[in-house]
Every structure is written in C-alpha cells, then in structure tokens.
Amino acid sequence: MIGMGKVPAIRPPAFALLPYGLAVALVAAALGLTLLLQSVVSVAGYIFFYIAVVASAWFGGRWPGWIAVILSAVAVAYFFIEPARSFVITREAAPIFLEFAITSSVVGWFSSWRKEAESELQRRVDQRTTELREKNEHLLNEMAERKRAEDAYYEAQAELARLTRLSAMGALAASISHEVNQPLAAVVTNADACLMWLSSNPPNLDEARAALESVAREGTRASEVVRRVRAMFANAKPERTTLQMNDLIREVVVLLAALAQRSHVQIETALEPGLPATLGDHVQLQQVLVNLIQNGIEAMRDLSDRPRRLLIRSQTSDSGRILISVRDSGVGIQPKDEKRIFDAFFTTKAQGMGMGLSICNSIIESHGGKLWAAANADHGATFQFTLPAEPAAS
Amino acid sequence: MNEPASIVFVVDDDASVRDAVKTLMRSVGLQVQTFGSTREFLEAKRPQAPSCLVLDVRLPGASGLELQRDLAAADIHIPIIFISGHADVPMSVQAMKAGAVEFLTKPFRGQELLDAIQQALANDRLAWHDRAQLAQLRSRYDSLTPREKEVMALVTSGLLNKQIGAELGTSELTVKTHRAKVMQKMGAESVPDLVKMAERLNISPTKSK
User: Fold this and answer.
1) How many domains are there within chain A?
2) B168 and B72 in one domain?
3) What φ, ψ does residue B32 adopt, rounded to 5°?
4) By C-alpha distance, which of A231, A233, A273, A267 is closest to A251?
5) What number of other Cβ atoms are within 10 A of residue B186's Cβ?
6) CA–CA distance, B11 with A185 (Å, rounded to integer)
7) Any A CB within 8 A of B61 CB
8) How many domains does chain B have?
9) Positive or negative, the Cα torsion across A25, A26, A30, A33?
10) Least reliable range by pLDDT among A270-284, A348-362, B36-50, B144-158
11) Same domain, yes or no: B86 and B187
12) SS (H, E, C) B178-199
C-alpha cells in the first residue's frame, strides 16, 4: 500500500460517509457507462473507471479513492476480464487486470495526493492570512497605545513646565519679598526710633532728624528694588544707555571692596584700555557683576592652602565683542554641575536660593550676549560673558 | 554684686537694618554692639554683662540658626531674638524649639523688638545673677585650704565634729576651728546655708585615708 500519512479532517458521521457513497455511486456509474459502451461498440476501455477513481479521490479523499479503486477492480474482474461474469482471472488476462489495478491505484493515489497538497497549501494560506490579520491588528493596537502614551507624555511635560514656572515664581517672590523687607525693616525701625527720640524729655531733635533721613533713604532703596524687579519682569529693554564696561567694573569693585576685605579676598582687575562701549542697562549689568564676584568670593570662603584671588578681566574678543571674565581660585565647578548652574534653583550653597546665576543669564541674554562658566585648569572657576560692542560713535 | 549695664548684640548682614536697630536701642538708652556676620560676633571680645542677641536668620557664612546651635553646643547661654526677611514656618518653629525668645518677621514694629529685648534681658539678668553668684561661691570655695575643703565636705554630709575628728585623725577642737573658718570664708550663716552652697558647687565628701 502506498501510505499518504495524513489524518483526515474530523467531520460529523453523516458527512463522513458521504465521500464513500460518492465513490460507490461513481464506480457504479462508470460500470453502467462501460457496459453501455461495450454493448454498442463491443470493446470498451476502462476510462470511466479511471475517471471514477480520480473523482472519488479528489472529492472524497484518500480512503474513498481506495474504495473506488477496489470496487473498480472487482467490477472489472467480474464484468470485463475474461471469462466475463466471473471473478476468475485467466493467466492470459492477468496482465490486463494487473495493468488496470496498478494504473487505477496510481491515478487514485496521485489524485488524492494532489488534492491533499492543495488543501494543505490552502490551509497554510488561510493560516498565514489569519496570522497576518492578527499581526495587523496588533500593530494597530500598538500604534494606538503609543499615541496614547505620547499624549500622556506631552501632558505630563506641560504640567511639569507649569509647576516649574509656578515654583520659580514662588522662589522669586520669596527672594523679592526678602529684598524689599530689608529696607522696609530699616524704615519702620528708624521711624520708631525717631518717635522715641521725639518723646524723650527733652526731645533729641538731632537724633530724630538723623533717623528720619535714614527712613527717607531706605524708602528710596525699597522703591529701587521694586523698580528693578519690574524692569526685569517687563522684559523690556530698560534704560539702555551707552556704557563703558570698564567703568562699571571699577564701580562694582569699589562697592564690594568691604566684602572682599572681610573675606580676605584680593580683587584684581585687568581692564583693556580702549574697550568698546556697549549698550545696556546699568543696574542690571551691575547686578550681574556683583553676583558673579560675590559667587567667586563665596567659592573661596573655606580656602586656606592658596591665596584668595579674584581676577576680573575685560577684553575685546576675536569677533569684536566685549568679553568680561571673573576668575576665582575657589572650589571650582563639578563637571556634572557645569550644565546646571544656570538653571533656576540649582545651588551648591547651603543658604542659596539658586536664582542668582539664572537671573544673570537672562540679563546677559536680554543684552544680546552670552554667559558661560568653566572650571579652571588649576583651581576655581571662570565665569565669562560677552556683550555686543556699540558701533563707534560717528 | 554690682550688675554691669545690659548690652544688646545685633547680628545682621544688612548695614541699614543693623544701623536702624542700633538707633532704636540707643533711643531707649540701651547699650548696643553690632556685627555683620556670625563670625564677627564669635570673634569679637564681648563684655561680660547681662545681654541678649538680635539675630538675622539669613546671614553670609553660618546662618543665624547655625549660630544658635553652635552657641548651645559651646554652652554659651544668651537669649536670642530672631529677625528674618522672609520667615517660613518650619524655620521659626526650629528657632523657637531651640529656645529662641522671639521670632520677628521684617518689617517689625520697634515696640515688638523692644518688648522682646526687655524680656530677654530680664531673663538673662536673672541667669547672670545666678552665674555671678556661682562664680562668687566658687572663688570663695577656692580660697579654702585643702583641709578646710575636707572639713566642709564632711560637715555638709551631716557628720558631727567628733566623727569628723575621727575621720580626719584630728582632735574635735581642731575640727571646730576649721569649721568656723569655713563658715566665715564661705559667708555661710548656718550649716543648712553651707549645705545649699555645697549643693550648688556640687561637692560631695571625698574619702580620706
């Protein structure tokens, strides 16, 4: 027997018998046709049996095919192999019978094999199609999921930005209230002192007058703070005047001389003569310099093994811009902090608010310049900023 | 004891606030000494007198809260009144828990500060008297001879002259003499008085040979 080794598909019993019925019917039809043909032309071939076998195997499958082969062989042996109407097969007729048997077996097997191959192919195609459909659905789901995740991410980012802005406002508000409360405290205290001097017996008018003068001075200072804050917030281009950065540096150095002396820091300047003028806000640029110098002084606070030197240099850069650098010999900047020192709230100081450099940065940027920092090769850090040079007055 | 005039120390890095507080103190006749940083305050030679400290929280270098901690660690007792440009609640709670007299937020009224200062000075005056008394007791005690110190310890532990004599291997008469000398030098009017002094000086009878 020629094995084909395929498990037939499971079907309900009624349907399972249908292919066998078909095989029987087909063989019966073939027998009828062949007998009919024989009665007409006296000799007939086995062509109808072959057709019956092929059709049974094709439509019914392997086993109905074999049934058709066996039934055909029986029918042929009985009706057509000499002697007719008998199952006896003579020696002379044996080859003919054998030929029929083998040929019908082969075509039956071939037919069912082709059919199974085709079914298998069809099955695979179906399976593949199903797989593809599933994958497609999966991909679509994934895309939807990704879209959702992206939306959530952007939402979270927006929320974070909002929170950062809010806390920046809070910190700024705290910083401003501190700045304003200092002079206000002096105003109130001086006013109260003045009342005391006036109510003493006899009133001390000189002291009262001095206290009132302090009141006026501190009130002005408070309003100056408020004005500066407003200028910073309006992001306006406040009071741009033509400035000599060298003059500004000298002013600031004088302003901070006492602090430097107290902190045992030696401030040195290397100012380029004939430095071009720049267009800028005097108070803001002063604020930047004060901030950078104070930072430098603070960075050297705990120094004991080397001189506390702060060098302020002004020069014209290669590209014709004004370049100011503040170099200290302090603790320097950790490489990991280099990117973050200009972020709001980043601070390495225990008492720091983390706003100073952030504000410096925005001031310099609003002047069309750039502020950056780098650790020195030996000790400390250098903060540098550029400012555009004002075209020489014509 | 003659009490020296009270003095107010002010530590604030803002010169105008510092000067304003100073003016206010002078207007009510208080002695005042000002400093720009905690370090200046610590390094300065401060007069020994009843005093209090008006301290800004946010200062260059060590903050006011750190100074409060350092002073406590160094066993320096001085009443502190904090003044702050922007006080947050945890900061003031921390300061008050650590024993601050008052926590004032700038701008404060002069009277608020003066009231706090008066209270702080009154507290410190009491403490100062206490400390001065103790110092006086200690110097008196230091003027005793070693034998007198032994006698004092034994007397204040409740022994009779006879027992003390036996303990020290001397006659009762000698003990009596020492005892009279101790009472006189210490300025004690009675034995219970002397016992109180011994308690303040933390004297316990030393085992003699």
Assistant:
1) 3
2) no
3) -145, 145
4) A267
5) 20
6) 14
7) yes
8) 2
9) positive
10) A348-362
11) no
12) HHHHHHHHHCCCCHHHHHHHHH
**Does the residue A140 lie in any domain?**
no
- Residue range(s) defining the domain that contains residue A319: 240-387
Q: Are strands B31-35 and A278-281 parallel, antiparallel or unpaired?
A: unpaired
Measured CB to CB, residues of chain A less than 8 Å from chain B are 174, 177-179, 181-197, 200, 204, 207, 210-211, 214, 217-218, 221, 262, 298, 301, 350-351
A 10 A CB-CB count for B195 gives 17
Summarize the confidence of residues B152-162 as an average pLDDT.
88
Say how far apart CA A75 and CA A86 lie, in whole Å: 10
Give residue A46's identity as a one-letter amino acid code.
Answer: Y
Residue ranges of the alpha helices (H) in chain A? 13-41, 47-55, 62-79, 94-199, 205-234, 245-255, 257-262, 282-299, 356-366
Of all residues in chain A, the one with the smallest CA distance to B84 is A178
The answer on A253 and A221 residing in a single domain is no
**Rounded Cα distance, A159 and B83, in Å:** 37
Query: CA of A272, closest CA in chain B: separation in Å?
Result: 33
Confirm if A212 and B14 have CB atoms less than 8 A apart: no
Q: In which residue are the tokens 């007791």 written?
A: B137
**Is residue B1 in a domain?**
no
Please name which of A296, A304, A302, A288 lies closest in space to residue A329, comparing C-alpha atoms. Answer: A296
pLDDT tens for the 394 residues of chain A, in order: 444 444 555 555 667 788 888 889 999 998 898 888 888 876 667 888 889 888 988 888 888 888 899 998 888 888 888 777 888 888 888 888 888 889 889 988 898 888 889 989 999 999 999 999 999 999 999 999 998 888 888 777 766 666 665 666 667 777 788 888 889 999 999 999 999 999 988 999 999 999 999 999 999 988 888 888 777 666 555 678 889 999 999 988 887 887 788 888 899 999 999 899 998 888 888 888 988 888 888 888 887 888 889 999 999 988 889 999 999 988 877 777 766 677 655 666 554 555 677 788 888 888 889 988 888 888 888 999 999 998 765 4
On whether residue B13 sits in a domain, the answer given is yes
What is the C-alpha to C-alpha distance for residues A284 and B92, in angstroms, rounded to an integer? Answer: 33
From chain A, the residues in CB contact with B118 under 8 A are: none
Task: Note the ipTM here.
Answer: 0.70
Would the pLDDT of B87 be above 70?
no
B24 and A190 in contact by Cβ < 8 A? yes
Mode of pairing for the β-strands spanning A322-328 and A381-387? antiparallel
> A245 with A227, same domain?
no
Residue A2, pLDDT score: 46
Question: What is the 8-class DSSP label of residue A46?
Answer: S
Range of the domain at B188: 143-201
DSSP-derived 3-state class of residue A281: strand
Same domain, B83 and B149: no
Mapped onto helix, strand or coil, the DSSP state of residue B34 is strand
Domain boundary among A182, A210, A234: A234
- Residues A332, A376 contacting (CB under 8 angstroms): yes
Rg, chain A, Cα only: 52
